[in-house]
Amino acid sequence: MDSKKRSQTLTLSDTKTKKKKKPTRSEILRKKRAAEGLVSAASSVVDHLSDLDAFRYYDHEGLSVRLDCGRGDRLSAPVKRYIQNLLKVNMEGPFGPEWPTEEKAKRQEMVAPEARYIFVLDDSGQSMSKKSPDVGRCYRHEEDSLNLVGFVHFRFMVEEELPILYVYELQLEARIRGKGLGNFLMELIEVIAKKNHMNAVVLTVQKANHAAMEFYTRKLRYEVSIISPSRVEPSVGKNVSYEILCKAFDLESREVLEENLHLFIMVLFSYPTLPFMLINGQCCGQRGHEKT
């Protein structure tokens, strides 16, 4: 977009913002409480696959897997080791010298009570005709850990007074990639988000993970969020190793994010030291990373 068009776009956006009535404090608090209620309700669900039988199994291009659910504070020791090992194999390269610090953070994130999981298990040894949904079961059996081939770690949370589903990790073993499973899992995540009245799905991707960036932005049409460092302050964002991507499900959510862009710009002009805070991760948090 050339400078003239960009100027026209900002002018139209500014006009739109001025016409909108500024919400009162009580309205903001009421909206936040409503969002927190939705997040609490979603987090209390034991099995997000309980009535989604179509997503219990995936059989395509010679790949046969089944899905199970779990939560961070109920992981067995073998499952914890598997998650740690797969993260190291998949993400040590994209993180580079940042990995030792990130690995420590991820070990804490993976066992948090609010962490929710979709586990991917190799099901090639079973006949598809004999499969039946295992409704209500949460993954925690040690003997099953040998069949794990990937996982999704996600959480329900409030961002900008909006209830969202944040994908912390989508990790698959190399041997099962390229068979459409990543797309299937993200479709499931979006179904879970919408079913639980979340307004958007948000995730973070390392810029060095070119395959993941291509997958989310081009194939799944996720957009770089306005809270991503590269959108908040491009001159600073180019030195930050990650992007925050999002997919909003309704016009109101997109409008809220657009309004917040103007707020961020105002804050940047008011607080010259904010770009340094962004680099140090004190704003626009670096949460999740994917290997699909």
Report low-confidence residues grouped into runs of 5 or more: 2-17, 127-141, 264-269, 271-285
Give the helix proportion (percent range). Answer: 40-55%
What is the CATH top level name? Alpha Beta
CATH topology: Aminopeptidase
Number of helices: 10
What proportion strand?
15-25%
Structural class call reads alpha+beta
Shape label: globular
- Report the sheet with the most strands, covering strand number, pairing sense and barrel closure: 9 strands, mixed
Written as H for each helix and E for each strand, in order along the chain, the element string is: HHEEHHEEEHEHEHHEHHE
Domains, number: 1
CATH level-two architecture: 3-Layer(aba) Sandwich
* Overall mean pLDDT: 81
Q: Please name the fourth-level CATH homologous superfamily.
A: Gcn5-related N-acetyltransferase (GNAT)
Radius of gyration over alpha carbons?
20 Å
Our measurement of the CA-to-CA distance between the termini, rounded to an integer number of angstroms, reads: 31 Å
Count of beta strands: 9
Report on the structure:
By secondary structure, this protein is of the alpha+beta class. It has a single domain (10-291), classed as Aminopeptidase (3-Layer(aba) Sandwich), CATH 3.40.630. It has helices at 3-19, 25-43, 77-95, 99-109, 181-195, 210-219, 229-232, 234-237, 251-270, 274-279; strands at residues 57-60, 63-71, 116-122, 148-159, 162-172, 200-206, 223-224, 242-248, 289-291. β5, α5 (181-195) and β6 (200-206) form a beta-alpha-beta unit. Mean pLDDT is 81; it is low at 2-17, 127-141, 264-269 and 271-285.
